[in-house]
Amino acid sequence: MKVVSACLMGCQCRYDKKGNYIQEIEGLVRNGKAIPVCPEQLGGLSTPRNPAEIVGGNGFDVLDGKAKVIDNQGNDVTKQFIDGAHQALKIAQTVGATEAILKERSPSCGSHMIYDGTYSKSKKEGVGVTAALFIRNGISVTSEEQIEA
């Protein structure tokens, strides 16, 4: 069983109320091979919402209290990102998921690249908060960009 970012199956749960539909991801869910989650919604954030980026590190640093998730209006949304990651992990563990396919560059779901915290569209290597929590709990994480290749 896999967990997938809900936006990848077409749910309009991104910060801008858009989805990132990928037919193969919807097929996994439709065939009972994957469960969709949106950690940001699970953490209590609304849709639409202000875009957010990790400031001062990556998802592991957020979990360790060394970095924060701040939206583009300066609001600290770290707690919601951590809460959502834990809720997504609970779902993943409940269904016995061993893999996750997550939305690259997201402050929750990025598995290789995230935005650098400057809101300049610049990216850096790193993982999002949910991806980091999944990795720490033995769930392998990949991105939609790796399955499309």
Account of the protein in words:
With 149 residues, this protein is an alpha/beta fold. The chain has one domain. Strands 2-1-5-8 form a four-stranded parallel β-sheet, sandwiched between helices. The longest helix is centred in the middle third of the chain and has 17 residues.
Question: In brief, what are we looking at here?
Answer:
This protein has 149 residues and is of the alpha/beta class.
| Alpha plus pi helix count | 6
Shape: globular
Work out the strand percent.
15-25%
The overall pLDDT average reads: 96
Number of E-state strands:
8
Q: Uncertain regions: pLDDT < 50 for 5+ in a row?
A: none
**SSE order, one letter for each helix or strand:** EHEHEHEHEEEHEH
Radius of gyration: 14 Å
Structural class estimated from helices and strands: alpha/beta
Percentage of residues in helical conformation: 25-40%
Structural topology:
Blueprint lengths: L1 E4 L17 H8 L3 E4 L1 H4 L9 E4 L3 H5 L4 E4 L6 H17 L4 E4 L10 E3 L7 E3 L3 H8 L3 E4 H5 L1
Parallel strand pairs: 1-2, 1-5, 5-8
Antiparallel strand pairs: 3-4, 6-7
Helix pairs in contact: 4-5
Please name the defining characteristics of this protein.
globular, two-stranded antiparallel sheet, 8 strands, alpha/beta, 149 residues, four-stranded parallel β-sheet
